[in-house]
Amino acid sequence: MTELTEEKKSLLKRVLIALLIRPPVILILLPLCLFLLSYGETQNTTVEERFGLSSSIKSPYKDTIKGTFVYSFAFCGDPHMYSKGDGCFDDLDRAIKLNQIRFVIFGGDLTYLGEEAEYSNFIDHISTLTSPSYPALGNHDIYNNGWEYYWRYFGPSAYSFNGGNAKFVVIDSADGEIGDAQMEWIHNQLRNNKQPIVFVVSHMPIYGDSYGVYKFPETKEKQQLIEIFEKYEVDFVLQGHYHGFVDISHNGVRYITSGSFSDGLLDSGIRHFLLIKVYGPEVTIEQVPVGQDIPVQYMDGAI
User: Fold this and answer.
1) Which long-range contacts (CB under 8 A, 24 or more apart) does 247-250 make?
2) What residue spans define the domains of the chain?
3) How many CB atoms within 10 Å of residue 196?
4) pLDDT single digits (tens) 43-81
5) For domain 41-289, which architecture applies?
6) b or e along 251-279 (b: 16 or more beta carbons within 10 Å of the residue's beta carbon)?
């Protein structure tokens, strides 16, 4: 039997808590438990390899809404698309039209197992949205050689673009490492920025009160990132992975972790995406609920 990773153990714990609170869901969740115990996850790339490939091409992600200082965009954490199903995209598309959302950022874990059919399903759904999409790479996206498909469909795992009066720097933190080359690239992106507002997008939470495998490892790289963000006055770091909403400020940088956007996964609270509105120098952030939620609260290691 495949050895359990820490992430699998944590997810299984969430499932067991759900069973205790609402026993009938055992019919749905027991197969998931058995699947997690038996399925082997492989990640056959390193961040250095991915960033090397990413930096060898011209990014397809262009600046958007130039010259605009009043606009809205959405940040969706962890869609976790399977090979079939529509997740919560209907809710997102309605919100795009209602709130005049100009673009959507997906904070990693676009897929659940990193399989090509899941990538295809995700692409089918974002292609129906009326606003452009900007993806980030998550740990689930590189399972089972998933990087091969991510690279083929989306290109670089680290890139930047300007949206209105803001600079967006999307980084590759999928396996909890940054690497020297990407760290230097992040440094240069922020040092050369000329926009008044700066957002960094990271799948792994760099800073917050999430715990264990649901945050960036306590390494020298983490401290380097925090110091760089503070030095160059990053305004917001948008994060995923944790499946729970966290909003915390540290030394002038606001770290916001979005809950899961996926329909059908256990979550730490209300399944949602973030609606971010920019009014010149002012930014507001609100949660927009989506989908149907199982009433399980599992925050910071406590039931």
Assistant:
1) 247/285, 248/207, 248/208, 248/209, 250/207, 250/226
2) 1-40, 41-289
3) 13
4) 789 999 999 999 998 999 999 999 899 999 999 999 999
5) 4-Layer Sandwich (3.60)
6) eebbbbbbbbbbbbbbbbbbbbbbbbbbe
